[in-house]
Amino acid sequence: MNVRGLLFDFDGLLVDTESPARLVWEELYREHGHELPLDSWATLVGTIEGPFDPMGHLEELVGTPLNREALTSRRREREFALIDLQTLRPGVEDYLEEAERRGLLTAVVSSSTNGWIEPILQRLGHFDRWRAIVAANGDAARAKPRPDLYLDALERLGLRADEAIAFEDSPNGIRAAKAAGLVCVAVPNPVTATLAFDEADLVLESFADVSLKQLLERL
Question: Do 105 and 190 lie in a common domain?
């Protein structure tokens, strides 16, 4: 491969926002005497719509409507507080520094929103490191596992699919990258570590396990 660009998912890959999100939902379920079904929860990782509605499911278990507005407000406040404690996942900083040394183009490609991604990157001091931040911004028709976000990122960076590597942490993200014709490296997080990553070209336990130099040589 003549690699000229690196495309990174955001939630759970660059920053582990997935663990706080699941933890808060687990707390909410247990508060009402139930357990969050983790298999169902996993279908939501990496996308913005899915067959599982956690609040609706909790209401079914409880057997009565809940004060969704109040619970959502409290849940989000708790989730944001936990995410504010997160830093870049191990090895990510080294990848970004090596990419800069090699003159590689980098982009964030996420089913989330710019309004979610950018403040976290700014807090961590990494907002200006990206050539592009491509987000679904609530548009389910563009969200992963559809390839649209990756195709958009390639166009913005002026790259062909065979000139870039996608990094993902979820099956939904991997499907999107492969549908766009990209080589995809999976780097699971604690929430997604038990999921199937058969469609990925390579699976790493951590960015810290294999340097970008070693990865490019391998590919």
Answer: yes
Range of the domain at 72: 18-83
Give 110: exposed, middle or buried? Use CB within 10 Å, 0-12, 13-18, 19+.
buried
Q: Do 153 and 214 fall into the same domain?
A: yes
Give CA–CA dist 30/25, Å, rounded: 9
What pLDDT is recorded for position 1? 77
**E strands in 15-89:** none
Mean pLDDT of the chain: 94
Q: What is the CATH number of the domain that holds 114?
A: 3.40.50.1000
Domain count, the chain: 2
Q: Please identify every residue annotated as catalytic.
A: 9, 11
> CA of 99: how far to CAs of 4, 26, 131, 160, 165, in Å?
9, 37, 12, 18, 12
Radius of gyration of the chain (CA): 18
Name the burial class of residue 184, with classes exposed (0-12), middle (13-18) and buried (19+) by CB atoms within 10 angstroms of its CB: buried
For residues 137 and 41, give the distance between their C-alpha atoms in angstroms, rounded to a whole number.
21
Do 139 and 67 lie in one domain? The reply is no
Averaged pLDDT, 127-136 = 96
